Amino acid sequence: MKKLSLLISAILIITSVQAQFHFGPQVGYTASKLTTDKSDIKTSFKNNFLFGAFVRLGDKFYVQPEVNWLTQGGIWEDETSNEKLEMTYKTIQIPVNVGLKAIDLKLVNVRLLGGISANIAVDKDIKINNISEPIKEAEWKDVVWQYQLGAGIDVLMLALDIKYVGGLNNLSKDDFTFQGNTITTKSNMFMVTLGWKIF
After folding, report:
1. Domain span at residue 13?
2. Which of 100, 138, 141, 98 lies closest to 118, judged by CA?
3. Do 194 and 163 form a contact (C-beta atoms < 8 A)?
4. Quick check: helix, strand or coil at residue 198?
5. Nearest alpha-carbon partner for 115 in 71, 65, 159
6. Domain CATH number, residue 175
7. 111, 100 contact by CB (below 8 A)
């Protein structure tokens, strides 16, 4: 992680010397789910909105840190017993993406991007059959990591990004069981954001 921090710092310094600088708010939509490899457990997406802000440093090559408020999680359903478990994980997400302008037409450009994000939990909730269950702090992590891959398009002052976000580690500290099955609590999602470059 130290090497990653040094790399990000170096890129920020290099780009800030020659850089264009943009800043602005953004809103978005996410569809997240928690994965399982059990055939009798059905998983469903949890759909939510996000709010945040972004900074972009650079032109052809750029670095884009963000701060977002969003909800992740998912729904598991046991098709045999009809039991349903819903996990809600409200987070402050801090991604840092490195990008490239693949097509630059001045007023419109197309970008490719990828990076890593830290997710700091501010609220955690589990519901079984729509009834909230207590969460033991010792069992669930306060910070989880994800990678991001995607593409974006800028039209004048608007920036539209579409990303796939994959979990690097589990939300739970130990194996998580539901209806006797061990399941994975990595949060994976699709994210669409629309930003407004104030300057």
Report:
1. 2-196
2. 141
3. no
4. coil
5. 65
6. 2.40.160.20
7. yes
Q: What's the length of the chain?
A: 199
pLDDT in tens, 32-72: 887 666 666 677 788 899 999 999 998 889 999 999 999 98
Torsion of CA 172, 168, 73, 45, to 10 degrees: -140
Exposed, middle or buried: residue 92 (CB in 10 Å: 0-12, 13-18, 19+)?
A: middle
**DSSP per-residue codes, 88-126:** EEEEEEEEEEEEEEEEE-SSEEEEEEEEEEEEEEEEEEE
**Six-digit token string for 21:** 């600088």
Structurally, the chain folds into a number of domains equal to: 1
When pLDDT is averaged across residues 117-146 and rounded to a whole number, the result is 81
- Tokens representing 113? 């991007």
Which residues are CB-neighbours of 134 under 8 A, at least 6 positions away?
Answer: none
Least confident of 48-62, 79-93, 117-131, 175-189: 175-189
Structure tokens at 19: 């850089």
CA 164 to chain CA centroid, Å, is: 8
In sequence order, what are the residues at sequence separation of 6 or more whose Cβ sits closer than 8 angstroms to the Cβ of residue 2?
none
Find tokens 């997406």 and name the residue.
45
Longest dimension (CA), the chain: 61
